[in-house]
Design goal:
Layout (H helix, E strand, L loop, with lengths): L15 E3 L6 E3 L3 H9 L6 E5 L7 H5 L5 E5 L2 H10 L8 E5 L13 E7 L7 H14 E12 L10 H10 L6 E2 L11 H4 L6 E2 L3 H10 L3 E7 L18 E7 L3
Parallel strand pairs: 3-4, 3-6, 4-5, 6-7
Antiparallel strand pairs: 1-2, 7-11, 8-9, 10-11
Length: 252
């Protein structure tokens, strides 16, 4: 993963950059983001980086001369992204600020590639279903969704894993939905805890894959991401299932 965003100097020694809205971090490029970057030139429609933060995945695509729509809940993030984009690439960048999914309404079948890296686990179950419904409408035939998410299997949340697994066995649709009390369970560093919301909806491969397939998407890849290859922070590593990655394609 040697795609350069030009922003490495901003990263914390643990491999992330703290965002400015208590919604976690911008991580360095992972293998799903690299697949998104590589697919951008053949995407059958718009290229969208949803939850772009400061542009770790956006900037490498802009440097290829490809237009990207960078979306983020925080306008300050987008302002910083614009500053980090090389001047000669800024004409390829469009930005949209808003809360996903409710503030976004793309035209039907206009998106050829969309990245959602570490944003879906901030959504309530209701908003997650809304997001997937909208994605089903937005993505063009042969277009692809690229998803990366934290799973329940992270060291700071290990005490909650038994309850998650009990919920999953019971058939609960989104079994790791934690409402207003994540800090009762989170045992990670104070620096990380201070930058997390109280409510979280960590995802797992079975639930996410099933939800995408139920909306007609074809799963091209679904797996847990290698911690070393993807520079997963040491403080969250548990058993190799810390992050899941999914690439799903809209059929013709």
């Amino acid at each position: 993963m040697n795609k350069s965003s030009g922003g490495d100097k901003h990263f914390h020694k643990q491999g992330f950059e703290i965002t400015r809205n208590v919604r976690g971090f911008m991580h360095q490029l992972n293998e799903i983001s690299v697949e998104f970057i590589d697919f951008a030139h053949q995407a059958p429609g718009m290229v969208v980086d949803m939850g772009s933060a400061f542009g770790i995945a956006t900037i490498p695509i802009l440097k290829q001369g490809i237009e990207v729509t960078a979306c983020d809940i925080e306008q300050e993030h987008l302002n910083e992204l614009i500053l980090r984009v090389p001047a000669e690439c800024r004409l390829f960048l469009q930005t949209k600020a808003g809360s996903f999914p409710e503030d976004y309404n793309f035209e039907k079948h206009t998106i050829g590639a969309i990245l959602l890296s570490h944003i879906l686990h901030f959504l309530t179950p209701e908003k997650l279903d809304m997001a997937l419904d909208k994605l089903s409408d937005w993505v063009a035939p042969q277009g692809k969704i690229f998803i990366v998410s934290y799973t329940p299997y992270i060291a700071p949340m290990k005490d909650f894993i038994p309850l998650y697994e009990e919920r999953a066995l019971s058939g609960m649709k989104w079994p790791y939905w934690i409402v207003n009390n994540i800090h009762d369970y989170f045992t990670g560093s104070k620096e990380v805890a201070e930058n997390l919301p109280d409510t979280m909806n960590y995802l797992d491969l079975p639930s996410l894959s099933k939800a995408l397939q139920s909306r007609g998407f074809i799963i091209e890849m679904a797996r847990y991401l290698d911690p070393d290859k993807n520079q997963i922070p040491q403080g969250v590593r548990f058993d190799g299932r810390e992050w899941c990655g999914v690439i799903a394609r809209q059929p013709d």
